[in-house]
Amino acid sequence: MTDQVIDVTDLRRSYAGGFEAVRGISFTVGRGELFALLGTNGAGKTSTVELLEGLAEPAGGAVRVLGHDPYRERDAVRPRIGVMLQEGGFPSELTVTETARMWAGCTSGARPVHEALEAVGLAGRGGVRVKQLSGGEKRRLDLAMALIGDPEVLFLDEPTTGLDAEGRRETWNLVRALRERGTTVLLTTHYLEEAEQLADRLAILREGRIATAGSVADVVASQPSHISFELPEGYFPGDLPPLDQLGVSGHDMAGRRMRLRTTELQRAATGLLMWAERTGVELRGLDVRAASLEEAFLRIARDADAEAGADKETVA
Amino acid sequence: MSSTTTAPPAASARSAVLTTSTGRMRALARAELTLLGRSKGVLFTAMFVPLIMPFSVRQAADGMDLDGTGLSVGSVVLPSALGFSLIFAVYSALVSVYAARREELVLKRLRTGEVRDVEILAGAALPHVAVGLAQCLLLTAACTALLDVGAPGAPLYAVLGLLLALVLWPVLAAVTASFSRSVESAQVAAMPLVFLSFLGSGTLVPLEVLPDKLAAVCELLPLTPTIELIRGGWTGDMTGAEALRALAIAVAWIVGGVFAVRRWFRWEPRR
């Protein structure tokens, strides 16, 4: 018996017209793990998740969810998964309770409607029509429906898009509680903080491929930290201590603003500050920043642009 | 797994209560019935139009030259009334419903769950089919009481025609919804078949009073065989071969419609 709940091998998806949204991705998600798919809009997150949910057939490669093909063996998979789409999809003229009753009637092992609504704080809104709910309430109803059958695997496609800060934190707490109970979660997001807060492991998608994957710490560790400051008038980069001795791997300068890259942040910062102390220089706008997921994310996006440029040159 | 280990209670409870096709469709039909009650436009089309319009047919029927066709005013009006009823209460209403559910992403959402595609469409159709059936029974009773149509000579044909129509119209509604973008355009897309059915399926004008060639083409329209069967059921002068032919045409439409839905039905709006 395998503990891989989701197993994706060289997965591909093409749309009519030839656009290839998913271009050969592979990853696995273990039982009880929370895996995040990160990416900018159009990176292929939703296209990928729809294949995992069994909503479409892959153009190539294979998906196994709980050991089954979610498209061809949907009867074996659907009763054990919960899905939250990017956009609701409930009749606007039904009330919250009527919606939940409908969904419960279509879900194996559904919990009582009231209990399901209570879990997301909608118990008091049962008589309200869906069209009168706020954006955040609609998302919570959607989440409640995804959870009503106590799924073993939960797919969340951008679960907090459109929520305010408080709603986002509530949703995060709910997702954390689910993970603690052993639910396997796959979520897509373009909020880096969300992935940082929730994910055990993540993959950053770019143009239908996985650009990088691993734990948050792994992905961040592959990125340099930054120190930036304004070089005072009359000073030049050559006046600084030799940068390689500080553990600085690269630098750039825009106007008088200097930016150093390093994988040894403490050593570089200490060296720089001691130099400033010695020479009596004030480093205005000093900013010492540890590597972050955001850096990793932005760099991947930048690399994509650079590659796109390079490709054009090769073609020309 | 050894027999000493037992599955956790949650898991066994879950497997014990898998949903059934009937249960899922009942849940969907119940929701759709609630929605039907809340949609004034659909409700009006479904409830009142078919109940009012047939009585205007009577005037036309009174003025028809029915001599030599073997038809009475009642046997013209009754099948027409049922035809109207089903076109509005089932076909036209369902075209809107399918398009609206698609536009609200309800169909897409439902497809992520355990419900099968056919259950989604059938579940939504059930309340409308029920309304259509109820109207047909009501109209039959009214026509029998008011127009002196008498007892059906071959009731089996009439029942067969009605059942075929109740399956045919939801299928054709789904086909029509496949080829429309929005609720509004779905209503427009429904028009041609509504008009064709009125004019050519013996609803407004019995085929017996049309020129032969035109009548031959009209016999192939989807509503015609069901109307013919219902009329034949009342007059009792339909031969077995004629009934079989009507049945074959209706079944061909249903099969073709099912094929078209499987092939072309769109479950989410075009973006």
Topology:
The complex is a heterodimer of chains A (316) and B (271).
Chain A: E1 4-14, E2 20-30, E3 34-38, H1 45-52, E4 60-65, H2 74-77, E5 81-84, H3 96-105, H4 113-119, H5 135-147, E6 153-157, H6 165-180, E7 184-189, H7 192-198, E8 201-206, E9 209-215, H8 216-221, E10 225-230, E11 248-254, E12 257-262, H9 265-279, E13 284-289, H10 293-315
Parallel strand pairs in A: 3-7, 3-8, 5-6, 6-7
Antiparallel strand pairs in A: 1-2, 1-4, 8-9, 10-12, 10-13, 11-12
Helix pairs in contact in A: 3-4
Chain B: H1 9-16, H2 21-38, H3 40-47, H4 49-52, H5 54-63, H6 73-103, H7 106-111, H8 117-147, H9 155-178, H10 183-200, H11 212-218, H12 223-235, H13 240-264
Task: Write structural notes for this entry.
The complex is a heterodimer of chains A (316) and B (271). Residues 312-316 of chain A have low confidence and may be disordered. The longest helix of chain A has 23 residues, at 293-315. Chain A has ten helices and 13 strands. A six-stranded mixed beta sheet of chain A has the order 5-6-7-3-8-9, with helices on both faces. Chain A has a four-stranded antiparallel beta sheet with strand order 11-12-10-13. Chain A has a three-stranded antiparallel beta sheet with strand order 2-1-4, with helices on one face. Chain A has helices spanning 45-52, 74-77, 96-105, 113-119, 135-147, 165-180, 192-198, 216-221, 265-279, 293-315; strands at 4-14, 20-30, 34-38, 60-65, 81-84, 153-157, 184-189, 201-206, 209-215, 225-230, 248-254, 257-262, 284-289. In chain B, helix 6 (73-103) packs parallel to helix 9 (155-178). Chain B has 271 residues and is mainly α. Chain B is 75% helix and 0% strand. Classes of the chains: A alpha/beta (316), B mainly alpha (271). Chain A binds chain B through residues 53, 55, 75, 78-79, 83, 85, 87-94, 98-99, 101-109, 149-150, and chain B through 10, 13-15, 17-19, 23-24, 26-28, 30-31, 34-35, 38-39, 101, 104-115.
